[in-house]
Amino acid sequence: MRLLKALTVLLAVSSVIALIVASRATPRPIVRIAAIQPMMNFGYVQVQGTVTAFPSFSAQDRFLSFRMWDGSAELRVVAYRTVVEALLAAERIPLPGDLVRVEGTLRIRDDEPSLILNAPDGLLLETPTAAVIQVSQLGEVRIGERVEVTGQVRRVRVISPALYVITLRQGDATADVLLSRGLPALANLPLPEAGDWVTISGAVSEYRGNKQVLATQVRFAPPLHEWSWPIAELDAGLIGHWVSVEGEVIDLRPFKQGMRADVTDASGEVITVVMFDSIWDRLPFSTTLDISDHVRVAGEVSEYRGRIELIPQLPADVQLLNAR
User: Fold this and answer.
1) Domain covering 231-322 assigned CATH 3.40.50.10240 in the classification
2) What are φ and ψ of residue 35, in 5° steps?
């Protein structure tokens, strides 16, 4: 009798397992996130979309979560323990901009759905090719799309030990890049400094109405020397714009907060370059710069007492080309 009961229980358990395996092996239609309803709690579904942010990851707790968007709504996906370990071993942790297809169990609490990834093979991901764009074009790109931009680092802000905000400039255009080292795949990304030129690949996101890039790749790049403006063409219509000039130093005049240098080019016109102490004192050639030296200067066009001036913002904006 006991043997019969044991066989009955074993058969029942086996049947349940077989049903679960069969149900998961059966191809499932893709569910739109916006169509998920409370009555679907604990349902096993398949969704697909784009990863929209850096995943949350804890190596100690063996925990991973990421958010995905399918064009209708956003969904949080969660994985635990052995699933996380398998994804790490296979280097399949989703990154911003990745296209993902996920199968798992829905959990709906307070009308907020999330999906539990029950097995590593329930996650399929693809990294699209990044579109090469100018920094000025970033505002036209949809959130989640992968892009590649090149620019000069103007500032690096530390948000946390693993998160940085890098401001890039390319001509008049500036944009912020979020650099995270909190994931194994991103832990060794180089951290550039102000003045460096870099090429950033990543996904577009938005913060307070401004587009930004969530970096997944960072590499140093050769400087993009922008076209030098003839000094004769610099007028009040360019105030506030970022330009580059190249010419000969014809005068150096110290003032209380730094140094003014008059620069002329082939047009014969003169522009005053205003270098405050925060820049002048950090120039490697500040003690040797002299009349007739040839320089390239990038900066913002300004006006002081009716005269057009050029104001660089970093030491890297002032380059000594050659001394005559």
Assistant:
1) no
2) -90, -5
